[in-house]
Amino acid sequence: GQQVMQIPQYQHVQEGEDFTTYCNSSTTLSNIQWYKQRPGGHPVFLIQLVKSGEVKKQKRLTFQFGEAKKNSSLHITATQTTDVGTYFCAYSGNTGKLIFGQGTTLQVKP
Amino acid sequence: NAGVTQTPKFQVLKTGQSMTLQCAQDMNHNSMYWYRQDPGMGLRLIYYSASEGTTDKGEVPNGYNVSRLNKREFSLRLESAAPSQTSVYFCASSEGEVSGANVLTFGAGSRLTVL
Hints:
The complex is a heterodimer of chains A (110) and B (115). Chain A is mostly beta strands and 110 residues long. The N and C termini of chain A lie far apart (41 Å). The radius of gyration of chain A is 13 Å and the shape is globular. Chain A has no helices and eleven strands. In chain A, 0% of the residues lie in helices and 55% in strands. Chain B is built from no helices and eleven strands. In chain B, 0% of the residues lie in helices and 50% in strands. In chain B, a hairpin with a 5-residue loop joins strand 7 and strand 8 (74-78). By secondary structure, chain B is mainly beta. Classes of the chains: A mainly beta (110), B mainly beta (115). Chains A and B meet through strand 5, strand 9 and strand 10 of A and strand 4, strand 5 and strand 10 of B.
């Protein structure tokens, strides 16, 4: 079935460095969502992308949806310790259920 | 406004025991979901309910049953627990596809250990 692959699985950065996680699919996606889960917490919705080539920004976070709607990325500029957590992409299957990628865990060294 | 409430938060079971995880939402959402989270595996959908009165299998339904008791409540039952079901379980809800943006609100999670 349709799946999304997230890379990398883990990323350690120094505070102030940039960070990017990628979400790739072998088939076209109708939409992509991004969630953040803090250590010991639950996933929290960040954003949804729907249009081909769409770019959205939330402060230091930039989200992109590829032109072919087969990939997406989340870029964090100048990471802070508050960015620590696991970032998941997710897409809606054809019956409305939301399927998640494996996640990218970000560690930030102060 | 509590959002999505799951009980219990922690549970230890012996192999073969049964238990039910409870979930309730107070946002008048149509759709509800049960996911499990294991290290390196992300969030895997167990069952979901697109609307009151309907349930459907997700990616990993074996060993589980669900009940959509009413619009607010969606329970997950383990009839005969196995060590492979040791996991963190998350309940979630959303307005559903009718809203055009199937955004999930998650509960705090239930950590289950099966010995």
